[in-house]
Amino acid sequence: MQELVEYSSLIERKLSEFNFPNTPENLYNPLTYFLKLGGKRLRPVLTLLASEMYGKPREASIHAALAIEVFHNFTLIHDDIMDQAPLRRNQETIQVKWNSNIAILSGDVLFVKAYQLLVRQEEKHIKELLEVFNRTAIEVCEGQQMDMDFEGRTNVSVDEYIEMIRLKTSVLLGCALELGALIADASVEDRSNLYQFGQNIGIAFQIQDDILDLYADPDKFGKQVGGDVIANKKTLLNLKALELSDAMSLEELTKLKNEADLNKKISHTRNVYDQLNVKAVCEEIMQHYYNEALLHLEKIDLLDSAKDNLKHLAGYLMTRTV
Amino acid sequence: MQELVEYSSLIERKLSEFNFPNTPENLYNPLTYFLKLGGKRLRPVLTLLASEMYGKPREASIHAALAIEVFHNFTLIHDDIMDQAPLRRNQETIQVKWNSNIAILSGDVLFVKAYQLLVRQEEKHIKELLEVFNRTAIEVCEGQQMDMDFEGRTNVSVDEYIEMIRLKTSVLLGCALELGALIADASVEDRSNLYQFGQNIGIAFQIQDDILDLYADPDKFGKQVGGDVIANKKTLLNLKALELSDAMSLEELTKLKNEADLNKKISHTRNVYDQLNVKAVCEEIMQHYYNEALLHLEKIDLLDSAKDNLKHLAGYLMTRTV
């Protein structure tokens, strides 16, 4: 994906050019640190690609693209506190390197920075940009709250789970694309189709994440295969398995939650899942959302050639092994 | 202050009409709870008074006024986490009644709500409203960070302290007024003077807070007189006392920080302050900022009668005993 590489380096460069004030150090140093941790920068690239589809130069939506990435990083900083995560991209999280108060407050400042970036777009677009962005920001918080609520529940349904990942991660991909289209003065229908494309790709991507966690090639995966199983995390695999279980496999899965031998825990859980055909069932659901995404891309009122970049990007995201 | 009462009931009513979604309960119930805790609603009243000065009906700036109040409450929710405060207006804080993760996240949502309100103002004002609001929001975070940094320092100067209270609390009063003036299409000079009026009143008000903490009439004060002394909090009284101290009083103040008998701690600290004439010195500084505020109010290009409400409000704030 040449475009992804090229566009994400542009984003990386622009992020590195942010000039935070020198003081208070404890407010701004964490932000400089966190934005340097890297990442795919997928979301802002979507914004740039969306406005470029309509013939706009990539600079036209750069502030909105950066706002999306900055907002995403704000959510990561606050999520890391809530999850008590020690590491982010193999580096210490802000609340470990500094403390959680500093993580709360520097996150808040980064959130304002997202709005400062949005306001730098052309004035005629600002109101609508903010309306889409605000709605999405609230949905992302709702998704995070659902995720936290799920931890304390035993009866989460597959539908609820998909609604949670839609809100927590997928709407932001839709929003990223819609902002780009909005800046390019695309029609309301096109904006909506691009949003739906992004949202559905996001759901498919998240389901793939769940599948890879247990079924990735350990040589390529780069982290512990089965991490979600070890942590007894609710994933689509796990919830589907519970849904499809008979009394016996339900009993086995319940017993495995407390299994101390982690290799055994992972392999036995996988055995139960395999008996229930869970992987194929989840892949089918993933494929459904991927197809939905492509359907919305097709509906967009542009030549196929203009859609190639997004189509390739979607295909690329779906064939990853990591 | 009839206007304050009347306008703050309008704000109270509008806040109670907020219709948060029903789910996730753990995200929205805390917000409904927190906004019902009450308060003077001083900041949004300033916004309404500012636009009314220019002949605008009070409804003209209602969304911006609510945005200011909602933002203020967002900062209180996050500050309560950072300060590990058990109570807010004599009721449990969100992190006590729920937990700190819920306080972080519901605070974040409330912050977005402030932006949603701002975007409901007339489109022609949105860009400028956001520019002033964003700058202020960042300054408030900077002030909170300075305040936290001060806790771990022994050498905070009076100037640094005043800069901290300017950022943490006073700029928001300036911003509240400027947004109202902006909506009324006031001149840039008037906007700036109103901002300065608010900022200086804010500093004076905060200094008064510090003085009242130790010198209020215990029968009227409604809370522990000397609370800041007990907590060894850095206040203007405390910093001025350290600045004016000779070696002997410095030693006594240092010793008193660890005094276990709290009544003795308060009365002896007050004795040292009285010897150093600290109260009068701080009142003089307060008066300086109050005079500065009135000077900026005078410069505003309107008939005196139009400024009466703000002048009365300022006077009223400066004569409080609680």
Describe the 3D structure:
The structure is a homodimer of 322-residue chains. Chain A has 16 helices and two strands. Chain A starts with a helix and ends with a helix. The radius of gyration of chain A is 20 Å and the shape is globular. Chain A has a domain at 204-322: Farnesyl Diphosphate Synthase. Chain A has 322 residues and is mostly helical. In chain A, 75% of the residues lie in helices and 1% in strands. Chain A has helices at 2-16, 25-35, 42-53, 62-82, 94-97, 100-118, 123-151, 158-183, 188-215, 218-221, 227-230, 236-244, 247-256, 262-275, 278-299, 304-318, and strands at 87-88, 91-92. The longest helix of chain A is centred in the middle third of the chain and has 29 residues, at 123-151. Chain A binds chain B through residues 21, 23-24, 26-27, 78, 81-82, 101-102, 104-105, 108-109, 111-113, 115-116, 119, 123, 126-127, 130-131, 134, 137-138, 141-142, 144-146, 148-149, and chain B through 21, 23-24, 26-27, 78, 81-82, 101-102, 104-105, 108-109, 111-113, 115-116, 119, 123, 126-127, 130-131, 134, 137-138, 141-142, 144-146, 148-149.
